Amino acid sequence: MEYGRRMTIKPLIILPDPLLRQVSQPIEQVNADVLQLADDMLETMYDAPGIGLAGIQIGVPRRILVVDVSREGEEKQPLVIINPEIVASSDERSVYEEGCLSIPEYYAEVERPAAVTVRHVGRDGKEHLLEADGLLATCLQHEIDHLNGVLFIDHISRLKREMVIKRFTKAAKSKPKAI
């Protein structure tokens, strides 16, 4: 994963921060700054640890996400996805228990299309099509939701969602403020 740049672990944005509801803006061109951001995001995701991270989750409202659904013990398979757009999704549905680095220690079953095709720009600055199913499809949909200001808790019942938001709002209020 070393690309000749120093990678930095970034602090995560946590619910109820309103930034998580912001719609991210497209990236105009893949340059050194974007590649550095991607490397920092990967480092942050691996450190958390997680399998996906959107730019907004580290306070950068740009349309970029990183994922790696390789299993522990397998070689890492990091993906950098810039300006993603779901261009096709299956009628077949699947349910996964999802969690989120921005909603720590909360998990819920979410139903989504079982397979998706995502058009995106890669690290190389070129457009690609990625066909995904299983966990990768779920992860991509979860992270693309982040870019649109949508959280996985938006896919669960209103009552459960309100309970989660209330819990995290209460926790945020009880945290000592940084000086």
From TrEMBL:
Q: For this chain's UniProt record, which GO biological process terms are given? A: translation
- Keywords in alphabetical order, please: Hydrolase, Iron, Metal-binding, Protein biosynthesis
The cofactor note from the UniProt entry for this protein is: Binds 1 Fe(2+) ion.
Question: Which domain of life does the UniProt lineage start with?
Answer: Bacteria
Q: What class of enzyme is it?
A: hydrolase
* EC number per UniProt: 3.5.1.88
Instruction: Look up keyword Thylakoid and say if it applies.
Output: no
Task: Please name the catalytic residues of this protein.
Answer: 143
Which GO MF terms does the UniProt record name?
metal ion binding; peptide deformylase activity
Family note: Belongs to the polypeptide deformylase family.
Function text: Removes the formyl group from the N-terminal Met of newly synthesized proteins. Requires at least a dipeptide for an efficient rate of reaction. N-terminal L-methionine is a prerequisite for activity but the enzyme has broad specificity at other positions.
Q: What is this protein called?
A: Peptide deformylase
Source organism (scientific name): Rhizobium straminoryzae
Q: What are the leading ranks of the lineage?
A: Bacteria, Pseudomonadati, Pseudomonadota, Alphaproteobacteria, Hyphomicrobiales
Q: What gene makes this protein?
A: def
